Amino acid sequence: MTVTEPLLRPAHDPVRSKKRKRGEEPPSPKQRKGQKVVGINALPWNEVSLPEGLDDAEGFFGLEEISDVEIARDERTGRVEYRHLKPPDAESPDDPAPEENGWNGCEDSESKEDTKEDTASPPTQPKPGLPEPLQKSSLNKSKRKPSLKSQRQLSGSNGFEHLRDDTDQDDDVSAWHSLELSSEVLGSLAKLHFKEPTPIQNMAIPGILQGQNLIGKASTGSGKTLAFGIPILEHFLEHGNFVDGQRCKSIDEREDPPTALILSPTRELAHQLSKHLDALCSNITLKYPHIATVTGGLAPQKQQRKLANADIVVGTPGRLWEIMSSSKGLIPWLRQIKFLVLDEADRLLTEGHFKELEEILDVLNKTDVNNDQIPSNPVLDRQTLIFSATFSPSLNYKLSGHLKTSTAASNSLEPLLSRIKFSTTPTFIDASPSSHLPTSLKSYLCSCHALEKDLYLYALILTHFPHARTLIFANSIHAVRRLVPFLQNLDLHVYGLHGQMPQKARMRSVERFTAGDQQNTKNTKKGNILVATDVAARGLDIPSVQAVVHYHLPDAANTYVHRSGRTARKGNAGISVLLCAPNEVQGTRRLVAKVYAQIKNDQAPAVDDKGLQTLEIDRSLVARLKQRTTLAKKIADAESAKQTSAQEENWIRTAAEELGAEYDSEEFAATAGVKKGKGKKRRGNEQRMGKMSKAEVGAWKAELKGLLSRRVNVGVSERYLSAGGIDVEALLEEGDGGGEFLGRVEGL
Ligand SMILES: Nc1ncnc2c1ncn2[C@@H]1O[C@H](COP(=O)(O)OP(=O)(O)OP(=O)(O)O)[C@@H](O)[C@H]1O
Fold first, then answer.
1. C-alpha of 453 from chain center
2. Which of 88, 248, 279, 601 has the highest local Cβ count within 10 Å?
3. How would you class 548 by CB atoms within 10 Å of its CB: exposed for 0-12, middle for 13-18, buried for 19 or more?
4. Pair 256, 334: CB distance under 8 Å
C-alpha cells in the first residue's frame, strides 16, 4: 500500500494510512530501488504549521504529516515496514535532502523540526549562489558541496542567523589548530566566523578529547556551550554509526545509543543549546547528528519519537524523566551515553530542581550485569562534564547576608562532587578566576522610592537607553503580567516571558525580542524590551542585549551574575542597573560586592562596593513623566481587572452550572467585594478598576496619547549642558514621532 496524500499524525495518535488516489501510478520498481525500508520514526515527518492563534491548544501543536510512504508487511516476520518513495529531486524546496549519492533512506529531519518549531517567522530560504565553503577551505580535503539542509539549519530566527555563511571567504581558523580538531569541525568554525577558541574552550577541549571528566567555570557569554559541544561532535564523527560515510540508523533505532545527554535547567536554554549545536554542525552534511530536544510545554509523544532517533539528547530534567520513566527501553539505551553534561550545574543541583535530576542520575548510573549491550557499570564508560559561571557557595547568599540553601561547605565543589558519580576525579578548570562577571559590563544602582519603581523604570528607559535591546527582570509572574501592558501603553515595544505562558508563546516572545531591531528599531528608532522572570536569567544568548534592568532585586548574588550576564557577551559593552528602594541599598551593595570581590580559594569575600556605581536620574525630569506613567498604569489595571473578573465570573458560572446551582452575577459582584482578609484592598481596587466604563478608559487613552505625542520639557539648565551630560544634538533634533524624551547621558 502506498500513501501519496499527506498522512497526518496527531502527536498522540498512532499512524493511520490512506489509500493511493484513484488513477495514481503505483511506485515503479525504479522508484523503490535503493530506498531502504525504515522504522516509522526514521521517516521524514513534517510538522503541520498551524494558524498563529491556535498556539499549542489541545495538543494540536506538534501535528505532523508525511506523504509518499509505502507500507508493507513482511510475510515472513509479519512486521510492518515503511519505505519513503519520494526521490530527492522531487522533495519540496522546504525539505531538501542531501544532494549526493541519491536519497538516504535513513535520514530524518529532527534538527530541522526543532528549528521550525521555534520559529514564528518563515525560515529564510538558502541564498542562491551561496559560496561553497568546503571547496574554498584550505582545511577541508573533501570537495563535497554543502547540502541545502545544512544551509537551512542555520536559517530562521534562532539567534544564529548572524553567523550564517554570507561571505565569499572562509575565515582563517588556524588559531584552532593546536586543539587538533577534525576538518569537518574546523570547516564549521570557519563558517561561523569563530576565528579563535575562547579561553574556556582552549582550556577544556583538549582534556575532554583525552577522556577527562571536567568541571568548567567561566563567566557568562564566554562560549561554554562549544567547550563541551566540540568534543561531543568530534566523538560522534569518530564513533557514530555510519554506512558508506553517511549517518545511518537501523530499523530498530534503539540499537544505536546516543553519544551525549545534555541537561539544562530551563526550556529556553535547552532549545538554545540544540540550536547552538545545530550551528556547530553547519559544515557536516551526510554525517549530521540527530539532535533531540526534550522539554516541557511541547507534545511528549513527538519528543519520544525524536528521542528514539537521537545522537545527542538535550533536555530539561522534568520532561526527560517523565518520558524516561514511562518508556521501558529508554533507560538501558540512555545508560550507554558517552557524555553526560550538566549545563548551569549549580542551578540544576539546587534544592527543588534536584528531584528529577536525581532520579535520572540514579537510573543512568545503575549497574546491570544481565544486559550484554550495556556496560555493567555505565559510569566507568562515560565522561561527565559540568559547566557554569557560578559554582561558589559564597554567591548563594541572599540579600540578608544568609546562605540561601544548605550548600554551606568549606569546599565549593563538595556539594557537586557528592551528588554526581564520576569515573575518575574530575579536573576543575576556571577560565575566569578573578571575576564572575564579564569585564565589559558596567554595573549601576539607581535608588528610588519603592512605590515609584514604575515611574523610574520608564524614566530610565527613556533617558538612558531609548533605542536599546533591554531585558527587565522581575521576581514574580504577576509583575511581568502587569509591567508588559504598562510599558506597552507608553508606546514601547515590549514582550513578556514567564513560566506560566504556553511554550509556543514563550518561544515567540524570545524570537520577537531577538528579531526586534530588524523589525522596528530601524524604522521607528524604538528599543525592544523583554520583561521576564528568572526563567530568562540563565544561559540565554540573545545577540546585542545592551542593558539589563533588575526591576526587582535578584534573590542571590549568583542570580545577579546570571541576569547581568545576558548583556556584555563576547566582549561587547553592556550595562546592568539595579532599581533599589532606599532601604535596600545597603544589602544590595553587599550582595554585589560579593560578585566583584577577588575570589581566592572561595573565601568569603570582603565587603567592597567597587564596580557598582550610582546612577542618578534628574528628579525634575522624572516628575514630568509622572502623568504619563499614572495614566499608563490606570489603563493597564483597568484592562487587566476586566479580564480577571470576566475569567472569574466564567469560572463561577461553569462551576454553578455543574453543581446545578443558580448563579446571579449581580449577587456575585456584590459579595466578591466584601471578602475579608489578605488581599482585600487589592481586590477592592481591582473591582473598582474593573467597573471603569469603556468610555472612561477611552478618555484616559486619548489623554495619554496626547501626552506621548508631546515632547517632554527637559528643562535643561545651563549648568547641566555645560557639564556635558546631555546630548545637545538629540535635544535639538525633531522628535522621533513617538514624542520621546530627548537627551541621553553618555558614557554608560
Ligand atoms: N570561539 C568563539 N568565537 C566567537 N564566538 C563564539 C565562540 N564560541 C562561542 N561563541 C559565541 O559566543 C556566544 C556565547 O556563547 P555561550 O552561549 O556558549 O556562552 P556561555 O558561556 O554558555 O554563557 P552563559 O554562562 O550565559 O550560558 C554565542 O553566541 C556563541 O555563538
1. 28
2. 279
3. buried
4. no
CA distance 710 to 727: 19
Q: For residue 8, give the 3-state DSSP assignment.
A: strand
Tell the residue nearest (CA) to atom 22 of ligand 1: 224
Q: What is the best residue among 177, 191, 280, 569 to mutate for testing ligand 1's pocket, by most ligand atoms within 8 Å of CB?
A: 569
CB atoms within 10 A of CB 733: 10
Q: Does the ipTM surpass 0.90?
A: yes
Amino acid identity of 49? S
Pocket of ligand 1, candidates 173, 193, 222: which has the most ligand atoms within 8 Å of its Cβ, to mutate? 222
Q: How far is CA 593 from the centre of its chain?
A: 29
Please give the single-letter amino acid code of residue 484.
V
pLDDT at 144: 31
Gap from CA of 201 to ligand 1 centroid (Å): 10
Under 8 Å CB-to-CB from 42, ≥6 apart: which residues? 105, 106, 107, 108, 249, 251, 253, 309
Residue nearest to atom 8 of ligand 1 (CA): 223
Which residue of 193, 224, 232, 273 sits with most ligand 1 atoms within 8 Å of its CB, as the best mutation to test the pocket? Answer: 224
Q: How far is CA 187 from CA 127, 163, 222, 241, 285, in A?
A: 19, 13, 21, 21, 12
b or e along 86-98 (b: 16 or more beta carbons within 10 Å of the residue's beta carbon)?
A: beeeebeeeebbb
Task: Tell me how long the chain is.
Answer: 748
How far apart are the C-alpha atoms of 292 and 290, rounded to whole Å? 6
- pTM over 0.80? The answer is no
Cell, residue 472: 527587565
Q: What is the pLDDT of residues 380-428, one digit of tens each?
A: 789 999 998 887 655 555 444 444 443 333 345 666 667 788 888 889 8
Most confident of the ranges 141-145, 240-244, 668-672, 689-693: 240-244
Please enumerate, as own/partner, the contacts of 131-139 that have beta carbons within 8 Å and a separation of 24 or more. Answer: 131/165, 131/167, 131/168, 133/165, 133/170, 133/187, 133/190, 133/191, 133/283, 134/187, 134/283, 136/169, 136/170, 137/170, 137/183, 137/186, 137/187, 137/190, 138/170, 139/173, 139/183, 139/186, 139/187, 139/190
Helix (H) or strand (E) holding 459: helix 453-464
Confidence band (pLDDT; 50, 70, 90) for 482? Answer: very high
Which residue's CA lies nearest to atom 25 of ligand 1?
A: 220
Phi-psi category of residue 438: left, alpha or beta, with phi > 0 → left and psi -120 to 50 → alpha: beta
Structural Rg of the chain based on CA atoms = 28
List beta partners, residue 446.
579
Identify whether the C-beta of residue 263 lies closer than 8 Å to the C-beta of residue 316: yes
DSSP label at residue 358: H
For residue 147, CA distances in Å to 46, 74, 95, 101 come to 19, 34, 11, 12
Q: Which of 336, 340, 288, 345 is nearest to 314 (CA)?
A: 340
261: which strand partners? 313, 340
Q: Look-up: residue for cell 535503493?
A: 34
As a whole number of angstroms, the distance between CA 506 and CA 500 comes to: 9
